[in-house]
Specification:
About 25% of the residues lie in helices and about 25% in strands. It has 5 helices and 8 strands.
């Protein structure tokens, strides 16, 4: 699939607009396959594949969490850090509405709605990350510093 043309998504447009160097990586999407499938198909460490999770606080205010593919988010710790009672994942149709992407193809770049972004701090130490490019079966490879420059995330330590 490496020779296939990369999709032009709002995420790709955003990366190009901000002159971010990236590589496009297509893989065979599997429903509920998650980062294990993309890391296997692309031959990269699952720890370097970054999930884009749309969550919400107790007031239903949406937020984005960027997390290593092989880790989970401690929602209790995240709620404590951001000073709210609870954080939970959005229902898929609500997440789609906030981001403008289908779950499984959610990118933090070019979202429909501006949301606060929280990034697991250890992602910044990786040499390269693979993050959704705005379509199921499509990741972009970028330097984490470029993601930080563009997204201005709050760095947190909430991985479990």
């Amino acid at each position: 699939m490496a020779k296939d043309k990369i999709p032009v998504t709002p995420a790709v447009r955003t990366l190009k607009k901000h002159k971010v160097e990236f590589t496009g990586h297509l893989y065979t999407y599997e429903e509920k396959g998650g980062t294990a499938v993309s890391s296997r198909d692309l031959g990269v460490d699952e720890h370097a594949v970054v999930k884009t999770l749309i969550m919400e606080d107790e007031n239903r205010q949406p937020l984005i969490v960027l997390m290593h593919g092989d880790c989970q988010v401690s929602t209790k710790e995240l709620a404590r850090i951001i000073g709210c009672k609870a954080v939970s994942p959005c229902a898929p149709q609500i997440a789609d509405k906030h981001s403008g992407y289908l779950v499984g193809g959610t990118s933090p770049f070019g979202t429909r709605k501006a949301m606060t972004i929280y990034m697991e701090e250890t992602i910044a130490a990786l040499p390269r990350i693979y993050i959704n490019g705005g379509k199921r079966g499509f990741l972009v490879g970028i330097a984490p510093q470029e993601a930080i420059r563009l997204l201005q995330p709050v760095l947190v330590k909430v991985a479990i």
